Backbone:
């Protein structure tokens, strides 16, 4: 049986991936969405995030770890830690092969410094953009509320942190692109020989179009397996 662990970005929460997880489970796939976030508790530091996340992982024999957005870096870290069967970047930044790994690239860090702070804390992620990240999404009010309600509050200093990336290059790798934002990353993945599945959607596709996202993940898993056999 195919086993999949979905890793959400620290900028949002598990509700951003739960719709896709529900579709995967309905198709007979063992799937989990672990998270170190706890209600009314301060989120862990970036350095501690993978440690806390590993403690929340379900008991699976040979999972494929799928990391969405910033969760792609966490997926690579976990894949190296637990010798996973594979790793998929879901509209995510390409992880470094090893070494100190910060949550965002320097250019994006500079953008964060332009945002208004309240006692050192950034506004919630959905307020960083000029347009509603869920604008036009065909989702229920309950789902929208769930997605927005578990977005954590992070201080600007949270992004100064780093964790050490273990070697994970031997793990099977794939890429699912859902938005234009990660066109270049998908091209890099393809150039490196990763199977790539491309969708024409938005960054929050796992929440707004779970059927399409789930199918893309399944296809990418199959392509990874076929590439290994070739």
Residues:
């Amino acid at each position: 049986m195919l086993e999949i662990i979905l890793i959400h970005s620290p900028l949002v929460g598990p509700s951003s991936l739960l719709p896709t997880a529900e579709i995967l489970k309905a198709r007979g796939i063992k799937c989990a969405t672990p998270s170190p976030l706890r209600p009314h508790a301060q989120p862990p530091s970036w350095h501690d995030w993978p440690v806390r996340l590993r403690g929340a992982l379900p008991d699976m024999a040979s999972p494929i770890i799928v990391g969405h957005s910033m969760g792609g870096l966490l997926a690579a870290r976990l894949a190296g830690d637990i010798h996973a069967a594979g790793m998929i970047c879901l509209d995510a930044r390409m992880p470094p092969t090893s070494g100190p790994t910060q949550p965002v690239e320097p250019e994006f860090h500079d953008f964060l410094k332009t945002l208004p702070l309240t006692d050192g804390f950034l506004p919630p992620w959905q307020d960083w953009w000029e347009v509603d990240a869920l604008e036009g999404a065909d989702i229920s009010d309950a789902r929208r509320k769930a997605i927005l309600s578990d977005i954590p509050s992070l201080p600007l200093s949270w992004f100064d942190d780093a964790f050490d990336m273990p070697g994970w290059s031997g793990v099977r790798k794939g890429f699912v692109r859902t938005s234009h934002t990660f066109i270049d990353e998908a091209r890099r993945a393809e150039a490196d020989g990763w199977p790539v599945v491309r969708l024409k959607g938005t960054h929050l596709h796992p929440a707004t179009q779970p059927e399409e996202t789930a199918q893309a993940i399944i296809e990418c898993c199959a392509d990874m397996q076929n590439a290994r056999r070739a």
